[in-house]
Every structure is written in C-alpha cells, then in structure tokens.
C-alpha cells in the first residue's frame, strides 16, 4: 500500500511531518500520529478543520456541504482535512498554533562532524544526525542549544532534507555565544536541537524565482537550490547575493556548481564596502535588473538583516513592482524573525 508524506505547517512556524496511507483522510492520519488537528464534526459540515494545501495533489472528498467549503474556497486550495485524501506528498498550512493541536517542536540531537571557518566571516557546521531526525522544508531553521550555556541560537539549514549530514552557515560574531563555542568545537561533540521551524520555505515552483540573500542569509537558499537540483526545475531562477565586505562573500563555488546543475539558474554577487575591489559595488537593490522581476510575474524569496528587507520593500514600491508572492525572513545575529508571506 502506498503512503504519502504530509508536512503540517502550523501558524507558529512549527512543522510536523506525518504519513498518510492511500485512501486515508488527513485528519485521521494526524490523529493516528497523535496530532489533534482542529475539528468539531469530522463529517464535512462545520468547516472547523479548514486548512490550505500549499502543494501536492489530493481529492477534496464528496461528503461535505457548501457552507463548510465553497467552490471559491476550493479553487483557492482550501481543504477540509476531515475529507481530504492526498494523492501525493503535500504541504498543508494549519491556521492555528501547534500547541492547540497538542503537538510541538521535535527534539533531537546531532554530533559534530566538522567545522569549517571562512576567514573572520562565517563557519560551516556539519552534524551527523540519527536516522529518525525530523524532515524539514527547504528554507526552514532549527534552534541549536549552545553547550554549557542553557541558551540556544537559531540557524537555517543549508543542506537539503534527507542528506546524510545537516549543515548550517553561521555568521562569526565577535564574542558571540555560538561563535565562541565553535572556535574550539571538537568532532564528536553533541548538540541538542528543536525544530524544524519557520514559514520561510520553498513553495511549488510555477513561475520565475528571484532569490535575494544577505550575508549568511545565503544558508536557506543553499537548501532550496540543492532541493531544486535534485527535483529538477524548468523555471528561470536568479539569485543576488550581497555582503558587506569582500571576505564575507563565501561559498561562491557552490553557487557555480548549482549553475551547472540547474538549467536556468544564474546568480550575481555584490559587496557594499566602498573600498571593495569587487566589480559590483553596492547593495542588491543597486543590481536588481528589471528582467529578473519579470514585470511582477515572479516569486521573490529574501533572507537577510532587517535593513536589507526594508530596502528591498522600498525598492519594489518605488519601481511599482508587486511580485506574485514575496516571502522573506529577517535575521539578527541572535534570532530569526519569519514574516508571513505577502502575496498579490
């Protein structure tokens, strides 16, 4: 009997994966795996279990009434989980916090496999993880406990889900909690994690993509690009990767590798420092060619510090561009702030 993997992405950014058997309704599969999705009647009458299917194919079911799910709502990919039967892997947005469904973030551990240092700019942390480590959506992040501190830091996955190792691109912060620990981290050290988390993740690709990365905001895009390289992509993808200093421009060789592996993927880099020798000085907004915006028929993904996010929003407004969808994540050295996607 075939089964499908269903990602339930809750309002608070928590994602839990469940397995749904052929002909099984999503609500039943979630209950079977101890996740209490919202419901009252379970008969397609009340509409309490209404969610949005963000990707995948499915049957809506026949046993529900118009008041519970209108034809217009169905056309917008709203579903009743008490009736929905998946026909493929799916991502479902659940409009309530995970805590109301008696679930929460998964807790797991990883073992340090290696730490690579990029000048005084960043580290790449690689972890060996157990086979039962939770899956994640490309672009999401996890909270990693800093040993001996009782505190955690949030980092986006730079690897694709299912890889033999989880990797993270971490900004080197002078006297930073995680940065200080990484300077002497030993292979075999154990790190505790909770996640995955975040509503910043790659949606189904149906139109051109524009990726905007600032500094170590490159990390989630590496996860997305690896996923697209494995799955295949027929839409054009352009990335602009901006940094402050020349030495902050890391992993360009990996982007070159993706340009070879993914037809239609191109990228450009820029450095803000006025004294740079880089051929493209300035910010990503200075190098955003109109062709990359496709007159608004583009899905934009942006990950960078708050000033970058604000600058891009102002740039779009000044240019009169309203992207088909705009997903962004602001980060500071100690936290990640995921914004709800903005769609036209």
Please characterize this protein's 3D structure.
The protein folds into three domains: 3-101, Ubiquitin-like (UB roll) (Roll); 106-197, Elongation Factor Tu (Ef-tu), domain 3; 209-343, 3-Layer(aba) Sandwich (Rossmann fold), CATH 3.40.50. 16% of the residues lie in helices and 35% in strands. The protein contains six helices and 20 strands. A hairpin with a 3-residue loop joins strand 8 and strand 9 (122-128). Helix 4 (219-231) packs parallel to helix 5 (252-261). The longest helix has 14 residues, at 306-319. The radius of gyration is 21 Å and the shape is globular. The protein starts with a strand and ends with a strand. The model is unreliable at 335-344 (pLDDT under 50).
Compact summary:
Strand 14, helix 4 and strand 15 form a beta-alpha-beta unit. The chain is an alpha+beta fold and 344 residues long.
List keywords for this structure.
344 residues, alpha+beta, Ubiquitin-like (UB roll), Elongation Factor Tu (Ef-tu), domain 3, Rossmann fold, 3 domains, 6 helices, disordered C terminus
Helices and strands in order:
Blueprint: E1 3-10, E2 15-21, H1 26-32, E3 50-55, E4 58-59, H2 71-75, E5 78-80, E6 85-86, E7 90-94, E8 106-118, E9 122-128, E10 141-146, E11 151-156, E12 165-171, H3 177-182, E13 190-197, E14 209-214, H4 219-231, E15 237-243, H5 252-261, E16 265-271, E17 299-304, H6 306-319, E18 325-332, E19 335-338, E20 342-343
Parallel strand pairs: 1-7, 14-15, 14-17, 15-16, 17-18
Antiparallel strand pairs: 1-2, 3-5, 3-7, 4-6, 8-9, 8-13, 9-12, 10-11, 10-13, 18-19, 18-20
Helix pairs in contact: 4-5
């Amino acid at each position: 009997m075939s089964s499908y993997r269903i990602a339930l992405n809750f309002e608070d950014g928590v994602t839990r994966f469940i397995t749904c058997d052929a002909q099984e309704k999503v609500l039943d599969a979630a209950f079977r795996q101890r996740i209490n999705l919202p419901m009252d009647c379970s008969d397609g009458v009340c509409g309490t279990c209404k969610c949005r299917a963000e990707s995948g194919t499915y049957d809506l079911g026949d046993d529900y009434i118009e008041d519970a799910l209108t034809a217009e709502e169905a056309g917008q990919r709203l579903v009743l989980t008490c009736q929905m039967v998946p026909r493929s892997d799916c991502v479902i947005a659940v409009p309530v916090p995970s805590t109301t469904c008696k679930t929460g973030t998964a807790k797991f551990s990883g073992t340090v496999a290696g730490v690579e240092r990029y000048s005084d700019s960043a580290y790449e942390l690689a972890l060996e993880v157990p086979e039962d480590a939770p899956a994640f959506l490309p672009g999401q992040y996890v909270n990693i406990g800093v040993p001996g501190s009782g505190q955690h830091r949030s980092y986006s996955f730079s690897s694709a889900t299912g890889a033999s190792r989880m990797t993270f691109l971490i900004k080197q912060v002078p006297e930073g909690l995680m940065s200080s620990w990484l300077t002497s981290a030993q292979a075999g050290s154990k790190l505790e994690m909770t996640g995955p988390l975040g509503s910043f993740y790659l949606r189904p690709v149906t139109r051109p993509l524009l990726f905007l990365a600032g500094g170590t905001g490159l990390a989630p895009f590496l996860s997305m690009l690896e996923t697209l390289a494995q799955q295949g992509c027929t839409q054009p993808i352009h990335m602009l990767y901006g940094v402050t200093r020349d030495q902050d421009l890391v992993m360009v060789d990996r982007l070159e590798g993706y340009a070879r592996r993914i037809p239609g993927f191109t990228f450009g880099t820029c450095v803000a420092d006025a004294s740079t020798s880089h051929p493209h000085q300035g910010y990503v907004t200075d190098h955003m060619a109109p062709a990359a915006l496709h007159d608004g028929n583009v899905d934009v993904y942006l990950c960078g510090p708050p000033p970058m996010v604000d600058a891009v929003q102002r740039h779009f407004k000044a240019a009169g561009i309203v992207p088909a969808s705009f997903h962004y994540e602001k980060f500071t050295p100690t936290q990640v702030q995921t914004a709800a996607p903005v769609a036209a």
